[in-house]
Every structure is written in C-alpha cells, then in structure tokens.
Amino acid sequence: MSSMLDHVVAQVVALQVRLLACRERLAADTDSEALHDLRIGLRRLRSLLRPLRGLPGVEQLEGAAKALGTLTTPLRDREVLAAELIKRGVAQAGQRRLQGRAATFAGVATSAQLSRVLAILDAFPLFLRAAGREGLAKSLRKRVDKRLVKQWRKLQEALQDPAHDRHRLRLLIKRVRYGDQAYPQLDHAGKPLQRMLKQAQSDLGNWHDRLQWLLQAQSHADLAPCKVDWEQELDDAERQSDVTLDALQAALQRRKPGK
C-alpha cells in the first residue's frame, strides 16, 4: 500500500475517534465547545475527502458529512450570537438563544445525520484498502497534489479579481488552509503562509458574523442595542480584511509555480 493511502486511513481513524468523543460530549452536555469541536472535525473530514473524489465510498461519506454540516450550522450560529450578546451585556437576549441547549445537543448526538457519518466512517478504511488492492488508488499522491494545486489556483484567481466576493474568498481560503493541514507532506504552505491564511479566515469571519447579525437585527428587536456597534465593526472588518487579503495575494504571487 502507498504511504499516501496509509496517511488517509490514519486520518480517517483519528477523525472517527474525534467525532465519537464529540458525540458523547454532546449527549452528556459536558461543555459548550462540543458542537464547535464536532464541526471542526467535520470540516477536517471534508477537506481530507475532497481530493479523493472518485474513490469508492467518498461520495457517500461526503454527502453524509454535508448533511451533518447543514444540521449543525444554524445551531452553532445561534451559539456564537448568544455568546456575543452576553459579552455585550444583552444577557437576556443571549440566554434566550441558549434555552434548551442540552436537548439540542442530545438531538445532534442521536441524529440520523451523525449516525450515518459514523457508520460510513467505520467501513471507510476497508473501502480504501480494497481500492488500493484493486489499483483504484494508483498514483494517489499525484492525484491529491494535483487537486490541491487546483484549489490554490482558484484562490489566487479570486484574489486577483477586483470585484472579488468576500463570501467566496472565505470559502476558498478555508479549502486551501484545511486541505494543506490534511496533507502536510505535500508542503503547499509553509508556516508563514498558514498563519496568513488563518488571519484572513479570521478577518473574513469577523466580517461575516457582523453581516449576518445585522441582517437578523432587521427582524429581531432584541438585537437593536448592538446594531450601531456591529455597523462600525463591519466597516472595520472590511478594511482589515482588505489589508490581509492584499498581503495574502502578494504572498501567493511569490509562491513557486505549481505550488
């Protein structure tokens, strides 16, 4: 078996263990970070899978992971907003959004979406090993590398577009950042570039949060006390993200061709 296939199998097993632990934390409502950690594990799984499309079981596991992401996204968004409101002293509005958290967590822990992800993960290493024996995973390192290069190219092209879409850039930055973390042996981004990607993701995340909160404030009166601050912070986040994205674009232009 190839070293790349061994790497993928090891990552799958590690992510399975992580998601199982998150399921138990959610079921027992042990801490407030359980849902966040579940989503990070899910994001890492999807980043690992994206360059493997075409191998047996990948499509099914990607579909299951996407469904679980769809289930948990609004729940996590509500958690983040609640924490923001409590931090700003609008505690009653924040606590309202946390009501029933234990039941919500338990619902995710026993959901069909999470059960399906875990069931497919349990069998997935066998699919990968079988694919390797049958020659379906031939030149896997080259295949993964080629697809990661394509992701980097898409990001660079998007950054060069004067009318770039911050939403799309945020997605593309996540893809290259977590793709690089999933396959560090391919060395697509050194530590300085990884730090730059992390900063860009954070800046765009701050912008995205304020934009979403202001949209909700149009129909939720209890968010009104934060509106002025969020509008100022949205402007600040736009300016900061532009500076970071300019620096990221310059760094990508200095990368070696094909990297």
* Cα radius of gyration in angstroms: 20 Å
Strand content: under 5%
How many helical elements? Answer: 10
> Unreliable stretches, pLDDT < 50, 5 or more residues?
none
Distance between the termini: 26 Å
Report the top-level CATH class of the largest domain.
Mainly Alpha
Mean pLDDT, to the nearest integer, reads 94
SS content category: mainly alpha
Largest sheet: none
Question: Got a strand count?
Answer: 0
Tally of individual domains: 2
Give an overview in words.
This protein has 259 residues and is an all-alpha fold. The chain folds into two domains: 1-138, Up-down Bundle (Four Helix Bundle (Hemerythrin (Met), subunit A)); 139-259. It has helices at residues 3-28, 34-49, 58-87, 91-98, 101-109, 112-133, 140-160, 166-182, 191-217, 227-253. Helix 2 (34-49) crosses helix 8, helix 3 packs across helix 6 (112-133) and helix 9 packs antiparallel against helix 10. The longest helix is centred in the N-terminal third of the chain and has 30 residues, at 58-87. The chain starts with a helix and ends in a 6-residue tail after the last helix. The model has no long low-confidence stretch (mean pLDDT 94).
Short descriptors:
259 residues; mainly alpha; Four Helix Bundle (Hemerythrin (Met), subunit A); 2 domains; 78% helix
List strands and helices in order, with pairings.
Elements: H1 3-28, H2 34-49, H3 58-87, H4 91-98, H5 101-109, H6 112-133, H7 140-160, H8 166-182, H9 191-217, H10 227-253
Helix pairs in contact: 1-2, 1-5, 1-6, 2-3, 2-8, 3-4, 3-6, 7-8, 8-9, 9-10
